[in-house]
Structures are given as structure tokens and as C-alpha cells.
Design goal:
236 residues; alpha+beta; 8 helices; 39% helix; elongated
């Protein structure tokens, strides 16, 4: 596996959206980008802000969320490095449809919409990748809606923990997920989600370390989430 952050002059190499582009084109696009650093809890952009840039998460992770009239938040997804967000506004030029907050210390590359669109006109492979990314977004939102209909709260908590905290071979940094963040992701109250997590800990499926959650029995959590005990590509 190539650590994309270690490639001098080509910081976009490990990003799926740009993987099919020539290295010279990636470097030219990266040269137009601005590096921005954020502390934990800092808002990167808010719903309604201009959609003038594509953001590449270089380090850390971000939470994409919507806020209700009473101030309650619903987290739509978490994007960790190396991930991309802001594709929708990039294409239609409309204001941001959601807000984004840094989860821990986070660093992003902001690619201007004008530079990105110039590149799309010269290389249609990039547009194909954008459509692929948008398709994945629709599938994810459809799955989230289905989970809220067919899974109970413990099932949604288990599925969220497995999807976000189980290690993968291409994971560069662990994600520390607080119980409050889990509550925002699964659409439950903090108190009810905390009770579910305490139950899981009592059963030996996980443990808490300060604000972080560590999974200790992936098979049990996957079963509770209605997922196969072993991931499809695990060979088990």
C-alpha cells in the first residue's frame, strides 16, 4: 500500500477521484489548492455557504451534518483521510447542502471549483469519477434510510461502530469516535446510545477508553447489526 501523504509533489495520488489522471495533471491541480488546518470541533463550512471548492481530507476526519430548527444535529456521514467532500456543490454551484465539522485535528486541501471544472473540460475521466462518487453517496443515504426503518437502535449502533471503527488494511489513522458522535450518527438520544454502548461493553463486545471506543468482538457486533459475521472479502 502507498501512503499517499508521503508522495512528494503529488498529494492527490491516493485519492480515488483523481487516481485515473496523469501525475502531471494531479500536480497541476494540487498546485492550485490551499491547505487549511482545523482544530477539533471547528466548522469547516456551514449549510448555505458558497460551494466554491472541493475538499480533500489530508489528515484527520470530518463530520457532515444537518441541523434542525431546535438546534439538534443529525450526522449524515463521517469522512476520514484520504477522503473527499463537496462534490455536489462543485457540480451545480449551489450553496452547501450540509455543514462540516472537524473531528479532531484535521487538515484539508481546498481545490477551487474553477480549477476543477477547467480540468473536467479537458479530461472527461474526472467527470466519470465524480458521477461514481455521487452514486456512492446516493447508495449510502439509501442504506441509512433503510437502517432507520428496519434496524432497532442497538442494531444501528452496532453497524455504525463496525463501519467506522473496524480496522482495514488501507486505514492510515484510527478514528476516535465519541458516544455523543455515535448518537448523532444513529439518530438516537445520547442517553439511550450510552446505555446501548454500556450493554455492549458488559457483553465484552467493546470497551471505552476516555472518549474513544475500541471494538473487541467484531463478529458479535456484525451479527447484532445484521451483517455477515465475516466481511465478504475476508476469505472466512
Amino acid at each position: 500500500m502507498v501512503d499517499w501523504r508521503a508522495v512528494p509533489g503529488d498529494p492527490l495520488r491516493g485519492i480515488a477521484l483523481f487516481a485515473g489522471l496523469d501525475q502531471r495533471i494531479r500536480r497541476r491541480l494540487a498546485a492550485s489548492a490551499e491547505t487549511r488546518a482545523y482544530r477539533e470541533g471547528q466548522i469547516i463550512f456551514a449549510e448555505g455557504d458558497p460551494g466554491d471548492a472541493l475538499l480533500v481530507v489530508k489528515r484527520g476526519a470530518v463530520a457532515v451534518f444537518r441541523s434542525g430548527p431546535s438546534g439538534d444535529r443529525a450526522v449524515l456521514t463521517l469522512v476520514r483521510a484520504p477522503g473527499v467532500l463537496g462534490e455536489l456543490s462543485l457540480l451545480d454551484g449551489a450553496p452547501r447542502s450540509a455543514s462540516v465539522e472537524a473531528v479532531g485535528a484535521t487538515e484539508v486541501l481546498a481545490l477551487p471549483r474553477t480549477a476543477f471544472l477547467d480540468l473536467v473540460h479537458s479530461d472527461h475521466r474526472l467527470l466519470e469519477e465524480v458521477f461514481r462518487a455521487l452514486g456512492e453517496m446516493v447508495r449510502r443515504l439509501t442504506e441509512q434510510k433503510t437502517d432507520h426503518i428496519f434496524l432497532d437502535l442497538p442494531g444501528r449502533v452496532a453497524k455504525t461502530l463496525v463501519r467506522l471503527l473496524s480496522p482495514t488494511e488501507d486505514e492510515l489513522e484510527p478514528m476516535h469516535l465519541s458516544q455523543g458522535r455515535v448518537a448523532e450518527l444513529v439518530g438516537g438520544s445520547r442517553q439511550s446510545v450510552n446505555q446501548v454502548i454500556r450493554t455492549f461493553a458488559h457483553r465484552g463486545w467493546l470497551r471505552t477508553e476516555g472518549r474513544a471506543i475500541v471494538l473487541t468482538d467484531l463478529a458479535a457486533l456484525r451479527h447484532r447489526a445484521g451483517l455477515p459475521t465475516q466481511p465478504p472479502d475476508s476469505g472466512g
